[in-house]
Amino acid sequence: MAGDELLILFNYLNCKTMIPNKFDYHRASSVDEAISLMAQHGMDAKLLAGGHSLLPAMKLRLNQPGVLIDIGRLDELRYIKKEGNELVIGAGATHDDIAHSAAARSTFSMLSEAADLIGDVQVRNKGTIGGSLAHADPAADWPAVMLAANAQIELRGPNGARTVAAADFFTGFFMTALEDNEIITAIRIAEPPKGTGSSYQKFMQPASRFAIVGCAAAVTVDGGVCQKVSIGFTGLADGAFRASNVEAALTGKKPTEENIAAAAQLAGEGVMPMSDHFASEEYRLHLARVYAARALTAAVR
């Protein structure tokens, strides 16, 4: 085949893969209607919120749903409020909503910090926290933050509502505890004790701003000693995880530079790091230790 013919064939195939397959579109007027539509269409249906993960996959035909159920305009899912001693974030809250929320920042500053580091302006304005958690990209920011905040994730389906701890929600590579017929409706985060600071730090891909390695840390200091330490990582492995060894190494100790550095050196132990064209396994481990130290230092300040 001649060079020109190869080029024509390549362009044809490239164009074909940028066009989604045919699908039906439904705009749900409520969460209950969305759940009903999901039950009606089964595995052929996908939920659409911000669409930043689903639509590119559809254009590449990596995902070919026959039905799209739009929940992106449901006001009942878009809110951020305090209820008693808890911060409650609706699954439809955008990254920008959280970045500018005084309630979120006053609960854990890492919530607003992480939101402000996600993607670009368009992504932050349309992308939702619920969509990000459901997609569970191993390089996404929210999973690490939810782990460090000990968040509770509320789900609803045809069999009713249930709550899953963030520690049990993320189960593997793009995998969660969310059932096919369920919707994330809200995230609940308990008010931390006095003396708690938090921070989210990441080394990002310059174009997508996904985390090559990201670390969320929450530290409670009382009497000059770290009483509670929570650390979540993203980008390092095939899914977000709690670094319990780093937490244990700093708990009960003074938050000195030396103690933080020693604890941070344990980051990534017992974990199989990812390796790609952005960073090798060795470099990701190095980044994990550097950014654990930075997040912990910022949190205790």
Could you walk me through the main structural features you see in this protein, from its secondary elements to its overall organization?
The chain is α+β, with helices and mostly antiparallel strands and 301 residues long. It folds into two domains: 76-190, Uridine Diphospho-n-acetylenolpyruvylglucosamine Reductase, domain 3, CATH 3.30.465; 196-300, CO dehydrogenase flavoprotein, C-terminal domain (Enolase-like, domain 1), CATH 3.30.390. The protein has helices spanning 3-17, 31-41, 54-59, 95-99, 102-107, 109-116, 121-126, 129-135, 142-148, 166-169, 244-250, 257-264, 281-300, and strands spanning 24-27, 45-48, 67-70, 80-83, 86-90, 152-157, 160-165, 170-172, 175-176, 183-190, 196-204, 211-222, 225-234, 241-242. The chain has a five-stranded antiparallel β-sheet with strand order 4-5-10-6-7. The chain is globular and about 60 Å long. The model is unreliable at 1-10 (pLDDT under 50).
